[in-house]
Amino acid sequence: MKTFNVGVVGMGTVGAGVVKILLGKNSPLKEKLGCIPLLKGVADRNPGAKNRVDLPSEILYTDDAKVLLHNPDIQVIAELIGGVHPAKEIIMQALESGKDVVTANKMLLALHGSELFKKARQCGKSISFEASVGGGIPVIAAVRDGLIANRIDSIFGIVNGTTNYILTKMTKENVKYSDALAEAQRMGYAEKDPSMDVDGIDSSHKLAILARIGFGTDFDYKQIYCEGISTIDLSDIRYAHELGYTLKLLAVAKRTEDYIELRVHPTLLPNDHPLSTVNGVFNAICIHGDAVGETMLYGKGAGQMPTASAVVADLVDVGLGRADITFRAMKTFSGNCECIPIADILQIQTRYYLRFTVVDKPGVLAKISGILGNYHISIASVIQHESKENGNVPLIMMTHSAEEGNLQKALAEIKRLDVIKDSTRFLRVEE
């Protein structure tokens, strides 16, 4: 049976999963393929990483990635250490050494993808990255290959399992944010420092990759609007549910003739929307193409073995020659894609959920709705609950579609009213 040799750099959670698959005695790869990836070596700076998997003596283990990068017997490097440095340098050196690269590094691709793709083309090699978005969900292949005949006008979904677990906990069990986060950390779903997840940064990295593939464009990553879930109040989840909506952290990409929208933020979805039922650590991505209409991909968006599955799928593509053909043929990787501006968040048009804390007296609703009307914002529905102990009441509104710039101006004016007693909360809506 024909083989090709693989070097794994990074023996963390995902790296260990890849090694387990490649060393598996009953691997389905042998049943399905006449050309299989063969693990040749592993590199990790942590001496204890070797203990994560029982490595046979013939597998080279080193703490220096350069040993693998300069090994002429290795054809493919799987970079699985994450972060920007030294991952970027390792990938660059691998390409210069004539090796194809497989990576799960969404941060590096989001920030430096164009530079890395350019280097790969100069070296006549490929970079594959199915595992960078959606874990075991084959979303990159679906968008890049399966939907190639479509003009894709929107991609949006839940691409971070940590935040989805937290919001599910808050929604289903009426648990406040801090307690839900603590539970996620105890379960191993959230890091000790969870900021990359809960601040939406991880989702924005994945959104950048999906948008580049789906729209065939380039853009300035720094212009992506990013807002996390740490300020979400449990009461807003309850009120939104009364109105028929479920709260999720969404990554949203939309394309128009003049610009693209790229934004990550807490978003209300109708309770009957398919994404509203995606709970726990699961991910789901909705893609709308002009030929296929709406498509949704669902599955485990993280975890050792789902992500390792995607890495190995890329390794197989390299070994079969598909990765090279795709990489050379796709304009996405050429560095010649049109650079399209990202819309400012104030330009977007959507519906909004608003929660005001107001004095319980006649005329309040008229004052607020009057200001909203002055900025061309119409009200679709209103909920007003009974007074609280301090005499103030929550006033909840759902608007019709409006421009966010107008909404922000209206809220700034409403804030100055003497009947407003606390900061106003608002959430964007996707139908």
Q: Give a quick account of the main beta sheet: strands, pairing sense, barrel closure.
A: 11 strands, mixed
CATH architecture of the largest domain: 3-Layer(aba) Sandwich
CATH topology of the largest domain: Rossmann fold
Q: Report the CATH superfamily of the largest domain.
A: NAD(P)-binding Rossmann-like Domain
Q: Give the number of helices.
A: 15
First-last Cα distance: 52 Å
The residue-averaged pLDDT reads 96
Helix content: 25-40%
Class of the largest domain, according to the CATH hierarchy?
A: Alpha Beta
Could you describe the 3D structure shown?
The chain is α/β, with parallel strands linked by helices and 431 residues long. The protein has 3 domains: 2-135 and 306-333, Rossmann fold, CATH 3.40.50; 139-300, 2-Layer Sandwich (Dihydrodipicolinate Reductase, domain 2); 347-429, ACT domain (Alpha-Beta Plaits, 2-Layer Sandwich), CATH 3.30.70. 36% of the residues lie in helices and 25% in strands. It has 15 helices and 17 strands. Strands 7, 8, 9, 10, 11, 12, 13, 14, 15, 16 and 17 form an 11-stranded mixed β-sheet that branches. It has a 6-stranded parallel β-sheet with strand order 3-2-1-4-5-6, sandwiched between helices. Strand 9 (245-255) and strand 10 form a beta hairpin. It is elongated. The protein starts with a strand and ends with a strand. 44% of the residues are buried.
